[in-house]
Amino acid sequence: MITNRITEHPVLSVPEPSEVVFYWNKTPMKARKGEMISSALVANGVKVFGHHHKDGTGQGIFCANGQCSKCLVLANGLPVKSCMTAVKSNMVVESVDGLPRLPEAVAGAEIQDIEEIEVPVLIIGGGPAGLSAALEMARFGIKALIVDDKNELGGKLVLQTHKFFGSVEDSHAGTRGNQIGRQLAQEAGENPNLTVWTDSTVLFVFKDKKVGILKAGEYKLVKPQTILNAAGAREKFLRFPGNHLPGIYGAGAFQTLVNRDLVRPSQRLFIVGGGNVGLIAGYHALQAGIPVAGLVEALPQCGGYKVHADKIKRLGIPIYTSHTVLSANGKETLESVTIVKVDERFRPIPGTEKTFACDTLLIAVGLNSIDEFTSETEKAGIPVFAAGDALEIAEASSAMFNGKIAGLKVARFLGAPTGEVPEEWYKKAQVLKSHPGAVQPQTFSEVEEGVMPNIHCLQEIPCNPCTTVCPKKSISTKDGTLMGLPVFNGECIGCGQCVLICPGLAITLVDYRKDPETPEVTVPYEVFNYPVKVGESVKCVDIDGNLLGEFEVSTVQSNSKIKTQLVKIRVPREIAKRVVSFRIQDEEASQPLEKVVMPERTPDDSFLCLCERVKVKEVRELIRQGVRDINQIKAVTRAGMGSCGSKTCELMVKQLFREEGVPLEEVTSNTKRPLFVEVPLGVFAGMKEGGER
Fold it and tell me: Is the pTM of this model over 0.85?
């Protein structure tokens, strides 16, 4: 039996298996107790969850966040999103091939009274912003109900195994995201002013100022005095031939499988998008033991932090800037991806195509705020606040801090004696969401004696952990601000604390004390599922991943608390300051195929609406005919009428309008559905979801 379980990880603890048996198309399989059906299927080697009723093409998981409907399956006869439905012992799970057939209604189903609850504050989303806001308002005695659709709080923090940037004081910089998430969740769970509902989905904010919530399968009505929308964001999608193939994931789905559920969904990965999400996902892949063939970014340089890009290049992942995906190739599932270089107007340059074998294409091209709850609440006449990605897309460190600001605003609105939000909070919030600054040239100290740190951080970003841990206070930022580049000026005792805490793995130590001609360089290492042993030779590289030579490892020190190793390597004096890390991925993993696979279809033949299999050219033709109402496009083509409720395709339709030179001010937006997610109608009558129909 195929198993794609991760059995060792350099950062995450692998729990003892607690297994149940379920049935996939009559075949018995094993799942971890409580995991989502989608994760159980991928762990058992299943990529295709069904076939679309229009063209028979395969469907599989994409977002793992309940936002799309590609992962639809039948569980005990009922259609469910497999990424949001926990597997149960002896559950019968079936693929959806064509339109699902619903079971016959069962007479005499139990109808329960619908409980109605009044709360001062309803917080939608238990991620970094929602939790930070809840804890801030609870500090002033404000009672709040936190509702989250996952089985644990923390949001995307739970998926992050890297150390965070930002401020140590305000956003736990230097601590891993999953640790931050669980710490915030624990604080919220223990606070008497906060009530937590997990496995609970907010369905809609009604005009009678009540909010419908599906709590663990039971329908509840909550009447809040005010609402804080901290629901986060959904991932954007791309148009290219083959974009419907199973094996194409959003970054969040990949991180969910790998870092939450310890499932290895890929044998070889390719990434689209050079923002922080895509760069970090490449790093997470290596920590899960998954080779990464490469990463493409359409812009001339990556939009994410340079230290993120640097560290994956150093480990052996090539980055192709000014490139895009030309096509995803495969029959039933993804088999390869073809990329192409683009000019300054993002047009493909013929003759620059490369094809890479891979079974997974990870799309990380940005996020879209889940702001429906904000507009629904405003229409209902309930005071509403927003925080985190539901307010504006930014890093999680920023989400935590603007969540704190929102929490203070809510508390003040409800009459708590908070005073005004301090002006310095707003200033710090602006810094935490700042875009990276210009890259500065690398310089080195002329001192070559004793022991001293080399700081390979060349771009201004909001980050300060290294300035907080030096026992000699010898590291500071140039201008004393959170955005200033760190500099060393003082005494170093070689403790390595700065090396351990740096989120960008951008600090090394050079020790000349024992042998000035062959100093010992200490580099941080967090991918030790690719083990490095004393006496072995490693391929040392500079900041850009250029090979400096092979040299012997003299010491490996493990820090079980921080989950980072300090690897010491003796190298010649003339290159010691330039050594930043060593390559771990074999070059073979990132080599293109000898034969380029060219797409059989044009980009306009790619799908714009995956739910209804609507192609780009169908919508473009209507726009050229003068249609300016997305509702009319929906009526003609069915784009946006699928089960995801246009959560993905509406943005792509608007993108087409811009391409055709139509200002969005002239375009009538799609009319939103009255419900945020799909739910059986019986639920509104008090029938428990999953009960007898």
Answer: yes
Which uninterrupted H or E stretch holds 540?
Answer: strand 537-541
Contact 47, 25 (CB under 8 A): no
> Residue 488 pairs with which residues in a beta bridge?
475
- Where does 322-422 have alpha helices with state H? 372-380, 396-413
Q: How is residue 402 written in tokens?
A: 């603007």
d(CA 30, CA 21): 5
Q: Which two tokens stand for residue 547?
A: 């090979």
**Same fold for the pair 115-233+369-432 and 609-693:** no
The answer to whether 92 and 110 have CB atoms below 8 angstroms apart is: no
Q: Which residues share a beta bridge with 207?
A: none
**Domain residue spans in the chain?**
19-101+237-363, 115-233+369-432, 451-590, 609-693
- Out of 1.10.10, 1.25.10, 3.40.50, 1.10.3470, the CATH code matching 609-693 is 1.10.10
Region 19-101+237-363: CATH code: 3.50.50.60
Kindly tell me the burial class for residue 586, based on how many C-beta atoms sit within 10 Å of its own C-beta (0-12, 13-18, 19 or more). Answer: exposed
Q: Identify the helix (H) or strand (E) that includes residue 235.
A: strand 233-235
Q: By C-alpha distance, which of 74, 78, 94 is closest to 682?
A: 78
Per-residue pLDDT, averaged over 112-123, amounts to 93
24, 26, 31, 37 alpha-carbon torsion, rounded to 10°: 30
Is-contact 3 43, C-beta < 8 A? yes
* Token code pair at residue 396: 């999680």
Q: Which residues contact 681 (CB under 8 A, 6 or more apart)?
A: none
- Average pLDDT rounded to a whole number, residues 529-534: 93
**Distance of CA 688 to CAs 24, 147, 201, Å?**
25, 18, 14
CATH architecture entry for 115-233+369-432: 3-Layer(bba) Sandwich (3.50)
Give the H/E segment covering residue 511.
strand 507-511
Q: What is the pLDDT of residues 179-222, one digit of tens each?
A: 999 999 999 999 999 999 999 999 999 999 999 999 988 899 99
Please say whether the beta carbons of 358 and 337 come within 8 A: yes
Q: Which two tokens stand for residue 112?
A: 């329960």
Q: What is the DSSP letter of 136?
A: H
Mean pLDDT across 134-143 = 96
Q: How many CA atoms lie within 13 A of 121 on its CB side?
A: 36
Locate the DSSP E strands across 52-210.
Answer: 58-59, 72-75, 78-81, 92-97, 115-124, 144-147, 194-197, 200-205
Phi-psi region of 489 (alpha: psi -120 to 50; beta: other; left: phi over 0): beta
- What is the percent of the chain with per-residue pLDDT over 90, rounded to a whole number? 80
Judge contact between 339 and 596, C-beta under 8 A.
no
Look-up of token digits 């559905």: 673
Strand partners, 409: none
